[in-house]
């Protein structure tokens, strides 16, 4: 291979495919390779036979649960915030034309040994059994403050609410909210995994709550949407985008060696006896074990149910959060449930995926409180995955490594990592507004 690529991308996980798509749109010469014969890497969606093979279960899944074409099971469960960064990236790149989405019907939280619907507006808050009457009014006042904040910032400052200086704990105190309500807001709305946010500047959490409120306003019930046929559709859509703009994709390509020059900077990737030359590499962490470290673990359990999750209004899709304080933990437990309505399972089967950050030597025990809320479980697939983070300096060796997927139930941290890699790669912030050159390209394509 004599040609030199601007970027070689290793791995077809969502992060790598987003970066590949964006770099291609920006007219970089991109070669994208994956050792697997399917898209998605760690974030793939598998059919039923692939599930049994991946988790080393005996027998053929299709003989037990029907045709492979009925199944698209996510290895890493996450929903999409409808006003979040991933949606902005989808719109910026026009990837939405390759995808179809459906809203997630219900959002729930486990408090005081019961499952409660997360209020989607002030009116629902007044009816909620999560809080007493006086607390409901304080909560409603707080929500109104957050909603109005971005239109009346100066007024907020006059009240003494400097969100960049005061902590979130101090802001909650201004509204006289009790610990139960604070726990609910911080974990079910701001979607923090643990409580360290209380001592950080309030701006961070208020922004997260505002994102939640804006996302809910898109569809009215929850802030979440989900792609038909599973999350594996997302990396494939960005791969199509890259191909439209000249990117080259190669699946089932073993990565035999990465070549460096005398100064230790990457100069090529060897596969099946051929070396593709490049200026830099973007990679999923498993391609560079010598340049990453373990920063934690996530335990997940994919469950097949023959019923919707109990006490959730028999909804076809939901998110259920168990705040850490409810089960004496340091991190929340998440349950994502989807069904045939999203074309991910055989009709009559619901998929519930439980996940949390590992804290002990017995990860399976840690998710038992969530499993107990699911009712009868027909099939279980357990996994414990390392969260790998890069240790190299990409500005020195030209290798830009993404981080592993955390336990969060949405894609905001995923997109933050994409944005960080993009900035390291280009020296510029990733902008979600389309550039004039991109608009001209679209007009040319249409003509």
Structurally, the number of domains stands at 3
Strand content: 15-25%
Helix vs. strand class: alpha/beta
Question: What global shape is seen?
Answer: globular
Helix percent reads 25-40%
CATH architecture of the largest domain: 3-Layer(bba) Sandwich
**CATH level-1 class of the largest domain:** Alpha Beta
- The total of beta strands comes to 19
Which structural traits does this protein have?
single chain, 447 residues, alpha/beta, FAD/NAD(P)-binding domain, Guanine Nucleotide Dissociation Inhibitor, domain 2, Guanine Nucleotide Dissociation Inhibitor, domain 1, 7-stranded mixed β-sheet, 16 helices, globular, GDP_dissociation_inhibitor, FAD/NAD-bd_sf, Rab GDP-dissociation inhibitor activity, Rab GDP dissociation inhibitor, RabGDI
General description of the model:
With 447 residues, the protein is an alpha/beta fold. Helices cover 33% and strands 23% of the residues. The protein has 16 helices and 19 strands. Strands 1, 2, 10, 11, 12, 13 and 19 form a seven-stranded mixed β-sheet that branches. Strands 8-7-15-16-17-14-18 form a seven-stranded mixed β-sheet. Strand 7 (106-111) and strand 8 (114-117) form a beta hairpin. The model is unreliable at 443-447 (pLDDT under 50).
